[in-house]
Specification:
single chain, mainly alpha, MetI-like fold, about 80% helix, about 0% strand, globular
Length: about 300
């Protein structure tokens, strides 16, 4: 009887802690998700009480005649691949720098991580001012093409403006994960490599990197999902311009549903977007997990 009471008490304690979070997860995530799936098969405008079932018409339109969706997807894919590489390279370099026993390593950690604390909207407006006003003022003094370029006024430079700000914001976060991984590397392995004659580059690529592949798995997953879902930074910095050349899928879906009052088509696009992101992240995690085993 005592064991049964303890089991019941343990179960009650568990659900007292987990229950509220689980309930809110169902109310805020699960139920709206299935409601969105339902509306993706309708032509609801988000306002009227009448909802007309249209079946797969929204999905057929999405893949056959909706060039705006395909353009947004192409931009988001290019953006994700670019920042995936740059963010992790910069974050890993930062981690190597601050774990190199420098006197200023604590100050550098703070400086590199601070951009991640700032919200995406605020960060976007700050960098919008820098690109439009700050660089223009510097360009009048220092006649370099970098400062005189129309950063947010040209599709090519606007893309790289987005990349610069995203990498600047997120690389410090990735740095923290890489620092934790680097600090877990056994020093005796590095000492053995040095005794065998390995130089610094050989130690890095032959010993350190293979040992911290799990950290790369986490960082690549986080960067991929964050880049695909970028909204606030894109909204504040470029707003999708110029000429919708930097319109991410999230902004495109938002405008389709709430600006053009086409909630059904917007829900269909959101569902397709969810499937795309899920497949890409699963493939990425599966690939890097295999690399962990091989290494």
């Amino acid at each position: 009887m005592n064991k049964r009471k303890r089991r019941i008490k343990s179960g009650l304690d568990y659900w007292m802690f987990v229950g509220p979070a689980f309930l809110f997860f169902i109310l805020i995530v699960i139920i709206p998700f299935f409601i969105g799936i339902y509306y993706s098969f309708t032509n609801w405008n988000g306002v009227d009480s009448t909802v007309l079932w249209v079946g797969f018409d929204n999905f057929i339109k999405l893949f056959t005649s909706d060039t705006a969706f395909l353009n947004s997807f192409w931009f988001t894919l290019r953006f994700t691949v670019t920042v995936l590489i740059l963010t992790n390279v910069v974050g890993f370099i930062f981690a190597l720098l601050v774990t190199n026993h420098l006197k200023t390593q604590n100050m550098l950690r703070t400086a590199f991580f601070i951009p991640n604390v700032i919200g995406g909207l605020i960060l976007g407006f700050i960098w919008q001012f820098i690109f439009v006003r700050g660089f223009a003022s510097i360009g009048e003094i220092i006649p370099l093409p970098f400062f005189q370029a129309p950063w947010l006024g040209d599709p090519r430079t606007a893309f790289w403006a987005m990349v610069i700000v995203f990498v600047w914001q997120l690389s410090g976060y990735m740095m923290i994960i890489y620092i934790a991984a680097l600090q877990g590397v056994d020093e005796s392995l590095l000492e053995a490599a040095r005794i065998d004659g390995a130089n610094a580059w050989q130690q890095l690529f032959k010993v350190v990197i293979p040992l911290i592949v799990p950290a790369f798995t986490i960082c690549l997953f986080l960067t991929t999902s964050m880049a695909f879902k970028v909204f606030d930074l894109n909204f504040a910095l470029t707003g999708g311009g110029p000429f919708n050349s930097t319109e991410s899928l999230t902004i495109h879906i938002f405008e389709q549903a709430f600006s053009f009052n086409n909630y059904g088509l917007g829900s269909a696009k959101a569902l397709v977007f969810f499937i795309i992101v899920a497949l890409i992240t699963l493939l990425q995690v599966n690939f890097t997990k295999r690399r962990e085993v091989n290494m």
